[in-house]
Amino acid sequence: MTRRRVVVAGGATAVTATAVALGAGLASAQGAPEGMGAHGPGSRPSGTASGTPSGTPEACYALTTETTEGPYYIDADRIRQDVTEDEAGIPLTLRLKVIDAETCEPVRNAAVDIWHCSALGIYSGYEDMGNGGGGTPPSGEPTDVPTGPPPTGGPGGPGGHQEPTDDERYLRGTWKTDRHGHVTFRTVFPGWYRGRCVHIHVKVHVDGTWTDAGYEGGHTCHTGQLFFDEESVLLSAETAPYSANTATRTTLDEDTIYPDNGAEGGLLRLRYKKRDIGRGVLAELTMGVAPD
């Protein structure tokens, strides 16, 4: 799949992401105990070497599971690391490492797109859709039928792409991986909307060219989603502005998109102060992709 158009910087200023202040008492995501290395459970096939294989056809790292793009993708037009645009929410530093799943070599100079909803479940570019594409956020008892025209296949799930309804682009951005395959974004902890658990969408593009205008050509080698464990979501729900989100929340176990395979399926390793998640969250994941 080739990129639909050239990514244009549009005058956006690249802001270097700053790490969340972390210290003693940091909490780690379920399934990813604190102190674990980059290759967590569900990522590296059992019985394989930890380094780059030599003379073996076996992959050294499991491919990160691909999932649906969803209806709210807008071909990236914001070249930046800080995608916040003054959106309210818990500060989130997202650190990804992109590697070739066959060789474990870092994937350098790839273009990584992320996009996600706000604390109240709204996607930029689709504000008229309301919370999760189903009209305005519900109040009182939830109903089974959305009040607005939902995207084909349900909110955030499979189905056709929805054309943007406005020019807002908060909580969306593209940045390149460095020579070690690392890319860092500064954003806010996502909220939720009816029918989906808390998640971030991600795409990885390779074989293109970075120019003064942005990223040109190439193809998409990975389309997926990043997920948050239930404990962190429950803590965020007690914090403003998430506490004002009245949409019925889908848990990680209930979600129909999450592949239920831990880090391999996009489950982030999270670190934060359990008694004060509002101070910020650090989320990390190593993603194994097939760049060819």
How would you explain this protein's 3D organization?
The chain has a single domain (26-49, 64-289), classed as Sandwich (Protocatechuate 3,4-Dioxygenase, subunit A). It has 292 residues and is mainly β. A five-stranded mixed beta sheet has the order 1-8-9-2-5, with no helix packed on it. Helix content is 3%, strand content 24%. It has one helix and nine strands.
> Which bin fits the share of residues in helices?
under 10%
Q: What is the CA-atom radius of gyration, in angstroms?
A: 18 Å
Overall structural class, as computed from helix and strand content, comes to mainly beta
Total number of beta strands? 9
**CATH architecture descriptor text:** Sandwich
Number of domains: 1
Shape descriptor: globular
Distance between the termini: 12 Å
If you consult CATH, what is the topology?
A: Protocatechuate 3,4-Dioxygenase, subunit A
Largest sheet: 5 strands, mixed
Residues in β-strands, percent: 15-25%
Count of alpha/pi helices: 1
Question: CATH first level: which class?
Answer: Mainly Beta
**What is the H/E string?**
EEEEEEEHEE
What is the CATH superfamily classification? Aromatic compound dioxygenase
Mean of residue pLDDT?
Answer: 79
Question: Which strand order do you get reading across the main beta sheet?
Answer: 1-8-9-2-5
Q: Would you identify the regions where 5 or more consecutive residues have pLDDT less than 50?
A: 1-57, 133-158
Biased composition (Polar residues): 45-55
Region (Disordered): 32-59, 130-168
Keywords: Signal
Organism: Streptomyces lacrimifluminis
